[in-house]
Amino acid sequence: MALKTNIILILSVVVLFETQLCKSEINRIDFPNDFYFGTGSSAIQYEGAAEEDGKGPSVWDTFSHIPGKITDLSTSGIGVDQYHRYQEDIQLMKDLGTNSYRLSISWPRIFPNGSGEINQAGVDHYNKFINALVAEGIEPFVTLYHWDLPQVLEDKYNGWLSSEIIKDYANFAETCFQKFGDRVKFWITMNEPYTVAVQGYDFGRQAPGHCSLLPSPLFCKIGNSAIEPYIVAHNFIRSHAAAADIYRKRYKGIQGGSIGTILNALWFVPATNTERDIVATQRAKDFMIGWFLDPFVFGDYPSSMKSRVGIRLPKFSQAESAIVKGSLDFVGINHFTTYYVKDDSMNITKRILKDALTDTGAVFLPFNGTHFIGEMTNSLWVFIAPEGIRSLMNYIRLKYGNLPIFITESGLPDLSTRLIPVRHAYFYLNDLQRIRYHSSYLPSLLASIKDGCNVKGYFVWALLDNWEWDNGYSARTGLYYVDYTDNLKRYPKKSAVWYKNFLKPTN
Ligand SMILES: *[C@@H]1O[C@H](CO)[C@@H](O)[C@H](O)[C@H]1NC(C)=O
Ligand SMILES: *[C@@H]1O[C@H](CO)[C@@H](O)[C@H](O)[C@H]1NC(C)=O
């Protein structure tokens, strides 16, 4: 009896302690009324059903089946089965109290051949999913291109390397406006073109796996890291502009939505206050953010890129520049962490082995000799550095005009494996680090709004643990734990409880 009382006492102390921890300093009511709080996903990472209902293969289906490309030897086929479980997952969103959800439409599910005949079963699926979201009061934010290019277009004209893609992409986008635009009010043309250009065509770690023979002789069969990333990015930018132009001319007036794109942006701080590191830090921002935002806002690439990349950087004709400039209604920012920047512009080997990253002439470090940029985490690459999100928002406000911004991804991956059943997942379920992350980033984001930044929403990456590209299932990012050993069952982590408390209306 006494023992039992003691246990109950200990349990209540633990519960009390953990409730305290889960209680955040701020609440959603501190944010503007029309602010969106959501979670994120993408088709390949979530849907599964890779060969069902007429879907064609994407470049990621192909890439993930090449041995050695995905760290845990998994493939893109199953995701977390959201194709079949979206009703159940919408209940999780409801339970959290989120009012929005980021999903992407799989291009090869709508056009198995990239263009031509529409696959009606694919259209039916997204109609059902979008209707179910809207019925529950959850605003769909729809990404049109989240990396799953139809393999047919890769085979036909090398995908993003060819400007032929612009008309096929625009046709896919317009089809989506026609089919879903009566209910979808937030269109995102691309997710992280920087990542595709650099990981797909410079490092070769992601689909379609291109890179130069040097410096990665064992890795890629094909590619040119000095040139291809810039061509691909150029075609992305022009494709966005073409889709935005169509949307604005033919749909926006009737449907009343808006169209933007998503960029991934680290924040950068000079490692020392030397002139060289300060200049290198600006270059890092230009090469990551300015590469895209400069064309979209000013109609041309940043001057630091033009001078360092030279003739390898494509040029916008006057007509192209005119359609690209001003083509964003908003920008989505995927922001996870901050790094110190050290100048590396004089590195001779790197100047010979030209590629998009070394063109930046900078190295990114979490430690500058005396300080860590933030708390190190179990992801190994995300450091909890909340000031960065505020600085980044202000940088965009001051440099690019006060464009509406959505934080379309933010969060913390946990290195893991898919082999851990939920009963052994205490460490992952008890994710206090993830709670520390969001409960420090949100006040900093709120501070940026008070600074005058036009921030409109925050989407936690991610709703569920999921298939994280070349990392396979080995990086768990969800508010919900997925038990891959037991039929992909979902379990709330502590961070889900924390987010729910944060979103709960207080009185
Ligand atoms: C895709 O192309 C193949 C070969 O050209 C054709 O047989 C098939 O009917 C096409 N499918 C669709 C959905 O357009
Ligand atoms: C490292 O950065 C911190 C600020 O984040 C700064 O106070 C410190 O002086 C820097 N260290 C060096 C060696 O410059």
Main attributes of the structure:
eight-stranded parallel barrel; 15% strand; three-stranded mixed beta sheet; 507 residues; TIM Barrel; 17 strands; alpha/beta; binds 2-acetamido-2-deoxy-beta-D-glucopyranose
Short description:
By secondary structure, the protein is of the alpha/beta class. It has helices at 2-22, 43-46, 59-64, 82-96, 107-110, 120-135, 151-157, 165-180, 193-201, 228-255, 275-298, 303-309, 318-324, 348-352, 356-359, 387-400, 426-429, 432-450, 494-503, and strands at residues 36-40, 100-104, 139-145, 186-191, 258-264, 267-270, 330-334, 338-343, 362-365, 375-376, 383-384, 405-410, 414-415, 455-460, 475-476, 480-483, 489-492. 43% of the residues lie in helices and 15% in strands.
Number of domains: 1
CATH structural class? Alpha Beta
Radius of gyration, CA atoms, in whole angstroms = 22 Å
* CATH topology grouping: TIM Barrel
Strand content: 15-25%
- The percent range for helix content is 40-55%
Task: Tell me the strand order in the biggest sheet.
Answer: 1-2-3-4-5-7-12-14
- Given as residue ranges, the uncertain stretches (5+ residues, pLDDT < 50) are 1-23
Q: What does the average pLDDT come to?
A: 94
CATH-defined architecture: Alpha-Beta Barrel
Q: Identify every distinct bound molecule in the structure, by name, code or SMILES.
A: 2-acetamido-2-deoxy-beta-D-glucopyranose
Biggest sheet overview: 8 strands, parallel, barrel
Structural class: alpha/beta
Q: What global shape is seen?
A: globular
First CA to last CA: what distance?
A: 39 Å
Number of helices: 19
Tell me the total number of β-strands: 17
- What would you give as the CATH superfamily? Glycosidases
